[in-house]
Amino acid sequence: MATLDWKEVVGDLRARLVGYEKRMDIRGAGKVLRCGDGVALVSGLAQCRMGELVEFGGGAYAIAMNLEEDQVGCVLLTGEASVSAGDTAYGTGQVLSVPCGDALLGRVVNPLGQPMDGLGPIRAGQYRPIEAPAPGILERQGVHQPLQTGLMCVDSMVAIGRGQRELIIGDRQTGKTSIAVDTILNQKGTGVLCIYVSIGQKASSVARLLHQLKEKGAMDYTCVVLSTAADSQTMQYVAPYAGCAMAEAFMYGGRDVLIVYDDLTRHAAAYRAMSLLLRRPPGREAFPGDVFYLHSRLLERAAKLSDELGGGSMTALPIVETQTGDISAYIPTNVISITDGQIYLDTELFRSGARPAVSGGLSVSRVGSAAQTKAMRKVAGQLRLELAQYRELQIFSQFSSEMDASTASTLEYGAMLTEMLKQPTGHPLPMEEQVALLYAVTRKLLPRDMQVEGVRAFRDQFCGFLREKYPAALIDLAEGEDLTESIEAGLKEGVKAFLAQMHAEDWE
Q1: Which terminus of the chain, N or C, has less C-beta within 10 A?
Q2: pLDDT of 17 above 80
Q3: What is residue 400's predicted lDDT score, i.e. its pLDDT?
Q4: DSSP letter assigned to residue 275
Q5: Is residue 348 within 8 Å of residue 324, measured between CB atoms?
Q6: Is residue 268 within a helix (H) or strand (E), and if so which, with residue range?
Q7: At CA 504, angle to CA 500 and CA 505, rounded to 5?
Q8: What interhelical angle do 452-469 and 431-442 show, nearest 10?
Q9: How far is CA 225 from the centre of its chain?
Q10: Is 396 exposed, middle or buried (0-12, 13-18, 19+ CB in 10 A)?
Q11: pLDDT digits 0-9 by tens, 24-65
Q12: 378 burial via Cβ count (<10 Å: 0-12, 13-18, 19+)
């Protein structure tokens, strides 16, 4: 019978105990009182904090939203079917965090950062909490660098700068999402990263959008955060904050990022549903009293950071849907007061064939010309006023059988401007081509009697003609971003040559 060597036993025990660290897992535990409709009431979590993640015995998670004297109201993120009354709930002491970094580019994720595109797991280098304080005043700098949308009517009249919050507002089916998608497509090659947050959209609509982004090669620099109408109210509520946290990681890394929230009307509706289930007191239109704070703490996180913090920026394009053009409703007025301007899409303009249907009168950018290039300021300085005069005269001309020559000239010029600003979706234009087209029409180089078909042909073919015959003008415009005398001379010569070619073709 072999005997044990106590020295060997002690040595083996010592080897096993190397690196041992005594740990105590102390967590608050509670009991589920009631669960249903995505909401769970839990008692016993005395140390629970607002926004804390709560774990249930079945592996489900929830966010603590109501902190009452004897119970905590939680909204469930996942696993609602596995939670029932009497189950044990644990406080995690953590808030919800999402993965961030370049690993998200080209991916479609849910509001928890989990992949939904079947391309495998996301190996993120860092995580950020979905709620974070907005940068302070001293941490910001003024918005001065343009973010080109590729849409003439926006870049010329409602310029957007990097770090700005510009609202896109209008009735349903007026092209709000199209403006945001065109802006994303126009960031190709600019170094601006994009995040599109879908909140309560139809899955078929999002599928078409994803197909367009992939077809145009925009997914290389874009991440899509997806919460469809079939998802729970909690996931729709979390989605914009998750997307904002992902964008913040890029911003604090010294990079420029564009984030689209589509749309905040559904986000507010999801928050209202959650609040009513939690039995919070309803206010105007049954929204809870803190619905303004719901969006202000989200949109205020968009900024242009100071050079000391890397100079990165987050540009926010929130979308809000109106009912019959009523911009004085509760949610629209709230978001208008938070943002730095709005792009208003007019239903009547849309029906008349103007695409994008941007209203020059109700659209505004509070950053103004600071977010425009010098060249664009020179050619588009009076554009808004001229369009407003045209709209006004157009209304009065309907009731008049006769008009003087000055009025007729203004109407002809306004019709030419309106036609020039029309642009098909999915075809954004670079800044230099926009300036060339606007220069031709605002300097009145086109014939006064040019018909709509002629203006359309000029708009569609002139830039290609310039790139072939007079490339120096466009190259200098793109590099210098200013309208110098030599560039003006080249543009004038190009317009004359193109009109001569058009006239020759008409005679053939």
Answers
A1: N
A2: no
A3: 65
A4: H
A5: no
A6: helix 264-277
A7: 120
A8: 130
A9: 11
A10: exposed
A11: 556 688 999 999 899 999 999 988 999 999 999 888 999 999
A12: middle
CA-CA distance, 267 to 281, in Å (whole number)? 19
Residue 191 clears pLDDT 50, i.e. is over it: yes
**167 exposure class (CB count in 10 Å sphere: 0-12, 13-18, 19+):** buried
In this prediction the pTM is: 0.91
195 close to 247: Cβ distance less than 8 angstroms: yes
Mean pLDDT across the chain: 91
Structure tokens that stand for 392 in this block: 């006004």
Radius of gyration in angstroms for the set of CA atoms belonging to the chain, rounded to a whole number: 28
Cα 36 from Cα 76, distance rounded (Å): 10
CA distance 355 to 401: 29
The single residue listed with the structure tokens 């109201």 is: 73
Contact (Cβ atoms closer than 8 angstroms) between residue 106 and residue 118: no
* Helix axes of 431-442 and 485-507: crossing angle, nearest 10 degrees: 70
Element (H, E) at 52: strand 52-56
Domains of the chain in start order, with CATH, are: 29-94 (2.40.30.20), 98-372 (3.40.50.300), 379-507 (1.20.150.20)
State which amino acid sits at residue 400. Answer: S
List Cα–Cα distances, 240 to 73, 130, 196, 214, 250, in angstroms: 22, 9, 9, 22, 16
**Single-letter code of the amino acid located at 476:** D
Given a contact cutoff of 8 angstroms between Cβ atoms, the answer to whether 296 and 145 are in contact is no
Q: Which stretches within 73-123 are classed as H helix?
A: none
State the residue for tokens 């209304």. Answer: 395
Q: What is the mean pLDDT of residues 118-146?
A: 93
Nearest Cα neighbor of 226 from 252, 257, 260 is: 260
3-state secondary structure of 126: strand
Q: Is 366 a catalytic residue?
A: yes
Q: Which helix (H) or strand (E) holds 40?
A: strand 39-43
Strand order in the sheet with 341-345: 108-109, 222-228, 193-201, 256-262, 313-321, 167-170, 341-345, 364-365
Q: What count of other Cβ atoms lies within 10 Å of the Cβ of residue 192?
A: 21
Instruction: Tell me the H-state helices in 160-232.
Output: 176-185, 203-215
Total residues found in the chain within this entry:
508
Rounded CA-CA distance 157/377 in Å is 9
Which of the residues 34, 49, 351, 366 is marked catalytic? 366
Nearest alpha-carbon partner for 386 in 153, 174, 151, 146? 153
Residue bearing the bigger pLDDT, 34 or 400: 34
Q: Which amino acid is at 398?
A: Q
Give, in order, the Cα–Cα distances in Å from 83 to each of 63, 77, 219, 279.
14, 11, 37, 20
C-alpha to C-alpha distances, 310 to 127, 139, 306, 307, 313, nearest whole angstrom: 20, 10, 7, 5, 9
